[in-house]
Amino acid sequence: MALFDRNDIAVDLGTVNTIVRNDTDNVLFCEATCIAIENKYNSTHTLAIGNNAKKMLGRTPQDINVINPLLNGAISDFETTKIFMQALIERGKTNSLAPRVGISIPQNLTQVERHSLYEATMFAGAKEVLLIEDPFSASVGAGLDISTSRAKMIIDAGGGLVEASIISLGGLVTSAYTKEAGDFIDYAIIEFCRYNKNIGISKDIAERIKHTINVFSDNPNINIGAKNLVNGMPIAYELQLNDFKNLLLNSMEKIKSVILEAINEAPPQIAPDLIDDGAVLTGGLALMQGLRDYLEEELKIAINLSPDPLQDISKGAYLIMENYANYEQGL
User: Which of 28, 214, 294, 307 is least enclosed by beta carbons within 10 angstroms?
Assistant: First the structure.
């Protein structure tokens, strides 16, 4: 009998976005990992979660806090994470019974961080919590058979982390990661604008810049709304996207280094599999223009972009929950 039933939910709890599903085709929640909380009259009240909370960022009065409960995939605020998970569980429940919750987590989380997430989810109303590491969720969600002796390499490029992992016989052979992922690039763009352009920009605009630039071609200028840091006034600013090429190339170089680290630590028997099959690139950062081509050219192996990189982890977590007995030993 499958462990996963209609009242069970799988969660891709990402630093930037969270996805909740109770079926491979049924997404219940796909929004920002963000929550807006009002602290007033010595009580706490949740105003919004997800995209509605993100819209409030930088616009709230003093008694409202907009919080991202995770940092690099780890809990940065226990109480806020508990409230956030309560909201997700309420959205995911299909009946009055407490659901079983499977959460995909970064492979590098410490036991303390795992326990904190487990506790927060149990306190939020889960019947049982299964923690599934991202390399396995991403691989299964991308359609890879990780049970065989043929090695599979998955590069999960997300907002909080970039993880490069090699899996064989249902277990992790090698893995390496960097926190210089999507969020890191966004904040680097913000800092570049601050110190080189004397303007302040929002994280949303930084994300837009990140996904608009192609480091291997000429880029158009774009018009943005910003804050003039010299006099504090709003300003309409024409931004030269070509100025950010080196910043993005440096980030791609770091991602390449992480992949090389994972490959270098693998035994020689893995080499023929990587030569024949290459690696699968998934996660939100996988959609950054030029990244796949850059990695393929630099590493001299095939880099296959997953057909659905934003959904792979949540799909994989669901599939692993559905057949947990087949994956439990490797996890």
Answer: 307
